[in-house]
Amino acid sequence: MKSFPIIAGLSGLIFITGILFVVSCSSRNTGAQNTSREIQKNQNSPESAKDSVKSKTIDSLTQWYEDTSHHFVFLTWDDGPQPPGTRNCRKVFKELGVKASFFAVGFNILNKERELLMDSIRRDYPALLLVNHGFSHAMNNRYQKFYSPASIDTALNDFLHNERLMQITEKIIRFPGHNTWAVNGMISGQLTKKPLVHRLDSMGYQVIGWDTEWRGSSKTNAPRESATEMANRVVAQLSSGDTRVPGAVVLLSHDRYFAHADAVDSLRTFIQLLQADPRIHFETIDHFRELHQIRRSKGTIN
Ligand SMILES: [Zn+2]
User: Fold this and answer.
1) What angle do CA 19, 9, 166 make, to 5 degrees?
2) pLDDT for 44-56, tens place per residue?
């Protein structure tokens, strides 16, 4: 486990006294395992696939959700800001024209540079989306205490504080350390019995888990799986329907795994492999099908 020093005076939260974690929030991942199924490439080039993604509108997204031949990949990167990984990922996403979401941690804004990096991502919307991973990353990974009924107000305030600090506009949260879902009253995953989930759900928050994870090495902090391995896995899950929503994969990874050039190349290759399939579209997590349908029913989009 790496550690970072705490910046003083960043927050009014009183329970933070230690050093900053970088433990993966996915240690209890229940996503599908790797598969040997090959990528089904098509005749279209990555460039043409990229163009089709760029030209997408909300209207077409609604139509695509009704057409099961379309597949969606939600890249969700946790624990930022953690440069240079955060900066590298943002650059690759923008370079390749794919949408992605950053579940950010206010406690990691250690300096002005990191604050400006988060400001940039916030301004990148609708290409990139800033969403809420809590201020303290569950009291610096003290999961049992953070999710206990006795800590519900502290935990709730941790998410609300992060929302204000990072000027997060969507009521979308990912729980640190646990794969849990709460979407429009449908609660599932590891923390379904915890009062915090139900409180957030009653307040209109959507808690987003994940279908699969691109893990990092605990020794090197580099991605464990190769680009091809991950792309094959995503395609296999899209084909099998082994995801929360058939035809959509929510992929979890972490900014910090992409600090070095080899990892950045791997991220680029992974995306390009998926872009070679014109059925696959990248979206920000606020357009995850269930959330998209909620917003549509409220009349905020078509
Ligand atoms: Zn995390």
Assistant:
1) 85
2) 344 444 444 444 5
**How many angstroms is it from 62 CA to the middle of ligand 1?**
30
Q: How far is the C-alpha of 227 from the C-alpha of 234, rounded, in Å?
A: 11
Q: How far apart are CA 96 and CA 57, in angstroms?
A: 18
Indicate the residue type of 231.
Answer: A
Query: From CA 255, how far away is CA 137, in angstroms rounded?
Result: 15
Residue 216 backbone dihedrals phi, psi, to 5 degrees: -120, 150
Backbone angles phi, psi at 249, to 5 degrees: -120, 125
Question: How far is ligand 1, taken at its centre, from the CA of residue 55, in Å?
Answer: 32
CA 24 / ligand 1 centre spacing (Å):
5
Strands (E), the chain: 71-80, 100-104, 128-132, 172-173, 180-183, 186-189, 206-207, 212-213, 248-254, 280-282
Query: What tokens were used for 5?
Result: 């020093």
- Going from the Cα of 50 to the center of ligand 1, the distance in angstroms, rounded, reads 29
Burial 149-171 (b: 16+ CB within 10 A, else e): eebbebbbebbbbbbebbebebb
Q: Under DSSP, is residue 173 helix (H, G, I), strand (E, B) or coil?
A: strand
Report yes or no: 93 and 270 within 8 Å, Cβ to Cβ. no
Give me the amino acid identity at 99. Answer: K
Question: In angstroms, rounded to a whole number, what is the distance separating the alpha carbons of residues 227 and 230?
Answer: 5
pTM above 0.85, yes or no: no
pLDDT in tens, 139-189: 999 999 999 999 999 999 999 999 999 999 999 999 999 999 999 889 999
All domains of the chain in start order, with CATH: 46-297 (3.20.20.370)
Nearest to 121 by CA among 101, 92, 95: 101
